[in-house]
Amino acid sequence: PLATSSPAVTDTNARQKKTVLIALPYPLPGWGFHYSLPQGMALRPGDIVHVPLGKRVETGIVWEEPTHLPAPLRPPAAPPLNPARLRPVIACLPLPPLPQTLRQFIDWVAAYTLSPLGLVLATSLRAMPAKPVMEKANWLWQPLSFTPPTPFSPLANMDKHPLAKTDKPGPFEYSQHHSAYPSFTQPEPSPNLQPAKLSGPSVRITPQRSKILQCLTQAIEEGKTGLSTAELAEQTQTNPTVIKAMSKAGLIKQGAGPAAPLFSPPDLTYNVPTLSEHQAKAAEALSVPIRQNIFCVTLLEGVTGSGKTEVYFQAMAEALAQNRQVLVLLPEIALSAQWISRFQHRFGVTPAVWHSDMTPKQRRKVWQGCITHQAKVVVGARSALFLPFATLGLVVVDEEHETTFKQEEGFSYNARDMAIIRAQLSQAPVILASATPSLETYANIQAGKYRHVLLPNRHGHATTPQIKLLDMRQHPPLRGMFLSPLLTEAMAETMDKNQQVMLFLNRRGYAPLTLCRSCGHRLQCPHCTAWLVAHHNPPRLICHQCDHQEPLPSVCPACGADHNLAPIGPGIERIAEEVHTLFPQKRVTIMASDTLTSPQKTSQIVEQITAGQKDIIIGTQSVAKGWHFPHLTLVGIVDADLSLAGGDLRAGEHTLQLLHQVAGRAGREQVQGHVLIQSYMPEHPVIQALAKGDFTAFLRQESKIRQAGFWPPYGRMIALIITAETEQKAELIALQLAKTAPHHRTDLQILGPSTPVLAILRDQHRRRMLIRAPKTIFLQPIIQHWLSLIPKESQKHIDIDVDPYSF
Ligand code: ADP
Ligand code: ZN
């Protein structure tokens, strides 16, 4: 019997069956399922087991009651159960248990986002290897008599188990041996290990051969599994051919030694930069909590190019020196190629990378690397939060203000906020890095909850770019054009000096709207309340909401008028067309999700730009993020007003963050950068803040407005989104929600039901309700109770979005 560190098994009565709580990776209600424990099986929390579920065998995790959650988030107690009716656990798998910090994190995310526990658990288990992932074994010479230690012995009679031959057999080999965990990192015994038959007494033992045998025997006595050809040749001063001949003669054999680690450890001293005085001070401030292993959140603020990455690399080195793991969350994986080469430059190896584009095999390797502490640094997209880190010692969230950290498919969560919970559960410090911090982070600094470290200037000789507003009412473009003559003049001047220009417009395709000049008909998506966007490369109409595509028509589908369809407004392809007319000799490249289709494609385009093979870069928000283009000195923002329209309260904050990031691409090296901003409302506070580069003043102003209205981050908010196949049904459910809403609570504000701008999405009719409360109230139990009051059938049509982005 194995000692259990904390009892997962509930011993209700010595004579009764023991029960165990198991979480399964499926969106089922409740907080795990009870099973009985077979005689002689001992389980620890986190152990990975096979259990019967209906007629199938499923993989689950030994779970604990989530008593660590704050009371309002704790799920309601499960009804009492009859142990006699419980089915037994089938087997415990020979894998290390899921770490407690990860299990508690999964509890947190599920409770906070009001999602089924199993749905969140599934995110984590998706990459769990079915059996240990093996790195190439290290082949070593061994004396013939040597038998390598067996990693673990599979449970012999497993195939006789009544459940072992079901339609969906588990992917695991079974074992009862917990003590066999080292097997997870050891290579499988290789078939090459079979000893060759000794070929009789004729084998000659020359002095050289005898020396080799002695040397090997000594190595084995010292506890080694063998010696490599190089080691053996060096230690005995013999030629490798002698070693090969001995193997042929059956005197020695080649066997597997310990495998190389799945990931090479970073070399902390590989390429240490000389930090400037400000940078060194910042790095030291970040390192203090790392050395003390305490949870705290620090904002590392600094204009783009101030060296935030260099500074947090230094903090990472500190965590690695403490032998703890580091997680770096990046907003978009497109960024990772540049980031990884910087990491390589600093630490001499590549980190473990985690994103949605990986093969299952790559994912399993990272998953295992995390749980066995072989992956020291993981850089990834938001779901990297669910990796089973053995000893997490630092979490970095780069570009913390980025809206892509908010996941909206599956269960909605904000990866930045959840990263902070993840770190807190591991007692690890957090670094949030940004040039344009989010209002949430700003509010936490104001409240004294987060620390603030500032890098005041760009590194080296680079200065911040000069920003100029272009009032489009006074400097309009020519008819049918979108670029003001002032901007095109500046472009020509810049390119005359062999420098690059970037034009930014956050709109993919050629034109956002196509209109029939005869009847006024507008081409609309058949599945959404959205216009079809015309694309020319390749030619087609695309709905940017649901990705519906159709050919570009030449005839109006409403009135049949021939060749009278007109593109209205610009997309980046139309800007590229205009640029081509103006500068036919120049080399233009487009950076948008349509062209950055894979990491390879992205690297290729980035390399061309970096090498100076392009003159003009035209891009959507894909160009805003972190790129460092040394020859780029002029940035033109084609339409600064674009995202300010619309009723979203966060529009101002997000526009400013985005445009500030874009502006930061200009002049990152010696040459002074310039930014020209085209706007029809240059007096707008956001455009003014952008032109003056005074982000803090904007945050101060914006926080006053939000504070006065108890809007986030000064209040809590949850959105309920109703989706149904028919408008009638959506209305009906909206009515049910409105009727049962907690109107009696005067401390809450209930808004809606309302019809969102995107009233129909993918043929689903949508309605929305919002509930708001002061920061002191947890809304989760209120929502849970509210939803329990409407019919079960209706509940299925409601998505819960905790801390929604738009309001
Ligand atoms: P940020 O993350 O704030 O945008 P980076 O860390 O990317 O800034 O730094 C901008 C550029 O300056 C990079 O090319 C980086 O290598 C360089 N740099 C910053 N600090 C140093 C330093 N102390 N020594 C050498 N190069 C530096
Ligand atoms: Zn659509």
Fold and architecture overview:
The chain has a 7-stranded parallel beta sheet, sandwiched between helices. It is globular, with a radius of gyration of 31 Å. Helix 1 packs antiparallel against helix 10 and helix 15 (651-663) packs parallel to helix 16 (685-692). It is built from 20 helices and 33 strands. Residues 1-7, 11-15 and 149-199 have low confidence and may be disordered. It has 807 residues and is α/β, with parallel strands linked by helices. Bound molecules: adenosine-5'-diphosphate and zinc ion. The site of zinc ion has 8 residues, from loops.
Q: Helix segment count?
A: 20
Structural class: alpha/beta
**Mind describing the biggest β-sheet?**
7 strands, parallel
Overall shape: it is: globular
Helix content: 25-40%
Q: What is the element layout, followed by pairings?
A:
Layout: E1 9-10, E2 19-23, E3 33-36, E4 48-53, E5 56-62, E6 91-92, H1 100-113, H2 117-125, E7 139-143, H3 207-221, H4 229-236, H5 240-248, E8 252-256, H6 277-292, E9 297-302, H7 308-321, E10 325-329, H8 336-347, E11 352-354, H9 360-371, E12 377-380, E13 392-398, E14 406-407, E15 413-414, H10 415-425, E16 430-434, H11 439-446, E17 451-455, E18 466-471, H12 485-496, E19 500-504, E20 513-516, E21 533-536, E22 539-542, E23 549-550, E24 565-568, H13 572-582, E25 588-591, H14 599-610, E26 616-619, E27 632-637, H15 651-663, E28 674-679, H16 685-692, H17 695-708, E29 715-724, H18 727-740, E30 749-754, E31 760-761, E32 764-774, H19 780-788, H20 792-795, E33 798-802
Parallel strand pairs: 9-16, 9-17, 10-12, 10-13, 11-12, 13-16, 18-28, 19-26, 19-27, 25-26, 27-28
Antiparallel strand pairs: 1-2, 2-3, 2-5, 4-5, 4-6, 7-8, 14-15, 20-24, 21-22, 22-23, 29-32, 29-33, 30-32, 31-32
Bound molecules: adenosine-5'-diphosphate and zinc ion.
Adenosine-5'-diphosphate binds at residues 273-276, 279, 302, 304-310, 459, 628.
Pfam families: DEAD (PF00270), Helicase_C (PF00271), PriA_3primeBD (PF17764), PriA_C (PF18074), Zn_ribbon_PriA (PF18319)
Binding site for Zn(2+) 2: 525, 528, 543, 546
Subunit structure: Component of the replication restart primosome.
